[in-house]
Task: inverse folding
């Protein structure tokens, strides 16, 4: 009997898994809340990190990619997972190429490689200069639609998963909601791949042009799966608020520098790598810059001449132009904004969560690759790798076993889920969550601020029920309160010293009356002065 894989999410992870599943002969259904064009993957500007033969010829190595990934992640990543994903990157590039991805190339026909922050070598492949995610998604979506026309893939768009079905402690399918149908439908499957993305919708100040409602967190918690490293939220340092658009790290890779209000270049005084330090370091530098921060591309213009930026970064140039800004003419004001979630549903190397039948990939998962801070352009790579790993798990029949992600021996704080997941909360309730996250769960945090966020989130839950954005904010705040030291993207201003890498905070659901905390949480709230 052919196994049925139900894929939730049409980003790079979900699309890769769908194509691999079809090629492996699985019965596969892909569900997307839109039309495969609104994922975070589409918005990925920089590229995909991979050490290909061309890079090796110029001195790069998989070992260097591994070292850069672990160092950027504050050595909190899973070394075995990092090594496996970096080693497989070149083969994933070949697979994406076979599926129709058209990478940028030099005049000689070689793949065009660039460098981003915290990478020791030029190893970033890109498409359209600064539209890599959109290019990959377009190629993979076209292929999926072709397979759907052939009857090899079942494609459901404008469809949202509202619940994971469970039996005997295992996930057995999904309840789907399609507005065009007017009623919910239960779809059973041998395995469900959760690839619905991160939690950008929890924050008001974010790089994403549309906020992800964080369905993965709510669905996974109600099914009993553990969430790990929820406190590890990455903020991109060069979001241009006057254009409501993110300026890719690759612009700094080409030579742009950061200056404060007095015109001083401040990053070299904070880190010897300057603007190419890891994102968490640069974000804190921009956050604390005297009078604000501006991105100055004049070094690039001096070296390459006018017109280079429009050719190399056409998407960014056009977005800035719509706001009356021109990087070749003047520095552009920037600020940190929520960009990526290193945390997520805890998975092992086979994409298995702690619940049998539930696989997770992409930003929805905490695979162990990113540690406490994601290395630039590793997210698209991870999505492809873990999507393919999920398919391999189903083909081998190992999806019936619970995953064994490394969660350490630390106590597991809980979040109260109430009695159900509300998918249509009042707009004001979502805005209130975003305000709390922006204020208390940002680049720098304090125990008192986190406790305030938890207290107000509890009140929101009492009034409006439990909805995905609130669930994700609860998970972030609960884990942030539990990790009293600073590590990577998680910085506590009220405690001295650093948190030890490898100590993982795993959050689980506590199905009780909303607003009631466990004794462990109450103790933390009291210590924080709540």
Result:
């Amino acid at each position: 009997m052919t196994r049925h894989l139900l894929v939730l999410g049409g980003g790079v992870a979900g699309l890769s898994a769908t194509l691999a599943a079809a090629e492996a002969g699985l019965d596969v259904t892909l569900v997307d809340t839109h039309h495969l064009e609104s994922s975070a993957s589409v918005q990925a500007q920089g590229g995909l990190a991979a050490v290909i033969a061309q890079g090796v010829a110029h001195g790069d190595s998989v070992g260097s990619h591994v070292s850069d990934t672990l160092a950027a992640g504050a050595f909190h990543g899973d070394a075995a997972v990092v090594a496996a994903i970096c080693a497989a990157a070149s083969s994933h590039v070949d697979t994406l190429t076979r599926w129709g991805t058209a990478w940028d190339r030099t005049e000689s026909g070689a793949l065009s490689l660039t460098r981003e922050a915290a990478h020791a070598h030029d190893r970033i492949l890109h498409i359209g200069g600064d539209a890599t995610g959109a290019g990959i998604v377009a190629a993979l979506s076209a292929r999926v639609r072709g397979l759907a026309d052939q009857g090899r893939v079942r494609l459901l768009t404008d469809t949202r998963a509202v619940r994971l079905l469970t039996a005997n402690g295992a996930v057995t399918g999904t309840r789907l909601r399609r507005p065009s149908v007017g009623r919910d439908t239960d779809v059973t499957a041998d395995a469900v791949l959760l690839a619905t993305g991160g939690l950008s919708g929890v924050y008001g100040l974010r790089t994403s042009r549309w906020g992800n409602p964080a369905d993965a967190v709510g669905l996974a918690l109600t099914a009993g799966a553990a969430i790990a490293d929820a406190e590890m939220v990455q903020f991109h340092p060069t979001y241009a608020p006057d254009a409501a658009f993110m300026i890719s790290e690759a612009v700094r890779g080409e030579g742009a520098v950061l200056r404060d209000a007095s015109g001083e270049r401040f990053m070299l005084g904070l880190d010897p790598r300057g603007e190419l330090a890891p994102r968490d370091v640069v974000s804190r530098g921009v956050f604390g810059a005297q009078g604000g921060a501006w991105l100055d591309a004049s070094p690039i213009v001096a070296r390459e001449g006018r017109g280079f930026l429009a050719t190399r970064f056409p998407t960014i140039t056009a977005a800035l132009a719509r706001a009356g800004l021109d990087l070749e003419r003047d520095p552009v004001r920037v600020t940190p904004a929520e960009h990526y979630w290193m945390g997520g549903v805890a998975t092992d190397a086979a994409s298995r969560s702690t619940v049998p039948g539930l696989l997770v990939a992409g930003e929805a998962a905490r695979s162990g690759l990113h540690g406490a801070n994601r290395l630039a352009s590793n997210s698209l790579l991870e999505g492809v790798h873990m999507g393919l790993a999920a398919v391999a798990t189903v083909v081998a029949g190992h999806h019936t076993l619970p995953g064994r992600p490394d969660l350490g021996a630390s106590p597991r704080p809980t979040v109260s889920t109430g009695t159900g997941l509300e998918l249509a909360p009042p707009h004001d309730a979502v805005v209130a969550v975003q305000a709390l996250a922006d204020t208390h769960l940002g680049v720098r945090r304090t125990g008192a601020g986190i406790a305030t966020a938890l207290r107000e989130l509890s009140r929101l839950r009492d009034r409006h029920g439990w909805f995905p954005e609130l669930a994700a904010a609860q998970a972030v705040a609960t884990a942030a309160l539990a990790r009293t030291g600073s590590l990577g993207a998680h910085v506590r201003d009220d405690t001295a010293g650093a948190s030890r890498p490898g100590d993982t905070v795993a959050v689980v659901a506590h199905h009780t009356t909303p607003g009631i905390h466990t004794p462990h949480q109450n103790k933390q709230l009291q210590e924080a002065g709540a």
In short: Residues 513-530 have pLDDT under 50 and may be disordered. Residues 16 and 264 are 45 Å apart (CA to CA).
